Amino acid sequence: MPWYERPLLTVVRREYAAAMRFAEDDASAVMPAPPAAPCQLYVHVPFCEVLCPFCSFHRVRFNPAKTQRYFDALRREIALYHDAGFRFCDVYVGGGTPTVDADQLIETLACVRARSPVRSISVETNPNHLQPELMHRLRDAGVTRLSVGVQSFDDGLLAGMDRLEKYGNAEQIRQRLAAAQGIFATLNVDMIFNLPGQTLAMLEHDLDVVLSLGVDQVSFYPLMTAPSARHAMQKTMGLADTRLRHPMYERILDRMLPTYRAASAWCFSRNEGMFDEYIIEQDDYVGVGSGAFSYVGGAMTSTTFSLQHYCRRVEGGHNGITQRRMLSIRERMRYDFLVRLFGGALTQAQVERRWGRGFALRMAPELLAMRLLGATRHDADAIRLTRRGMYCWMLMMAEFFNAVNDVRERMREHVRQELETWNEDARVPTSAIGRVRATGPAT
Ligand SMILES: C[S@@+](CC[C@H](N)C(=O)[O-])C[C@H]1O[C@@H](n2cnc3c(N)ncnc32)[C@H](O)[C@@H]1O
Ligand code: SF4
Is the pTM for the entire model greater than 0.85? Predict the structure, then answer.
């Protein structure tokens, strides 16, 4: 493990746990003011056919009889934002598995496109949904990027992740991906490295397969585990050897960079201009659906994690937001520093446009520390990541998502009974709906 890894993680862990602390328990009926320009829309579809043990996203087991009401609420919520003056240019549909109900998904995409000047639509899916007819329907519905969760091309690891049976074995996945190429402007493959039991040789094999397929884009995520979910995951999958994280990441860069461009510290694209879900050009984004985060006008919000409560709220004419926190200027600067450099560079023009001279003053400790560490290079027009910086930013972003995942896990704990049964009759104490208490240290 590089000498700087532990101190860096200690610092950012504290910072992100504090940053993800929501202050208000119920931001009922709060509709943020729309930004001047069209922004990004995130649509959350929480249904999955099989629940993977490593995943801390907001997901429930797919129940075909019960999805209609949720999708109706999604479309209603999108219309509410539109009526409030929001317009959306880039749409990202994530989950869960958004393609579990293709008809509902396509109707929802049509609902957004009818109201907004949409230029790109990205949709997440699983390998068992790579069926030619479905893919062509999605393309005709405006989908420009399909992101397929593969995780690994090792059958043993797929079995350990509980994905082999439902989503297919490595060879089946490889063949389906080969057939899917060329349908969408961007075909992305999601991989995970540093999984429990994964060796460097297994990763090398994953890289061989990914490179031989030559897909448009590959995302290599480090295994991210919310502190609250670590124990459960350990029981089913075992422990990851974190000492392998750095050599594995170096190997990924060695193999990917000759033919791919780093669109972010963990996403590699063949061509310029391909969309990486974690790089958001617009400052603001709106999340709709249950368990979706938004960042609008410097405020971070979350919708309720109870699917029932979400549907009831939207049916009553409100958006799903139940948690809100206004970020301080310094927190917003830090977030910008994290997200922009994760994409490779923070340009002078971006700093001028958003923050002016105050940025260099307020962010002096971070700017100096990362420069001394050799993680950033200060050019005349931009601050850029070095190769060491790519590793640092990959670690920091993973810690950021660990903090987000921790919030998700704790929010989900309050509605566990409902989520496990996805049962309309399950009793959800109103005092617990969407309520979260951060356990991390305040700074
Ligand atoms: C949330 S899933 C949604 C799409 C689809 N259901 C799937 O499984 O791919 C999107 C991606 O997130 C990544 N992911 C989920 N849990 C993760 C974790 N604990 N650590 C790293 N990546 C994770 C996986 O690569 C997954 O493909
Ligand atoms: S990784 Fe994908 S399929 Fe697995 S539980 Fe998470 S969202 Fe569902």
Answer: yes
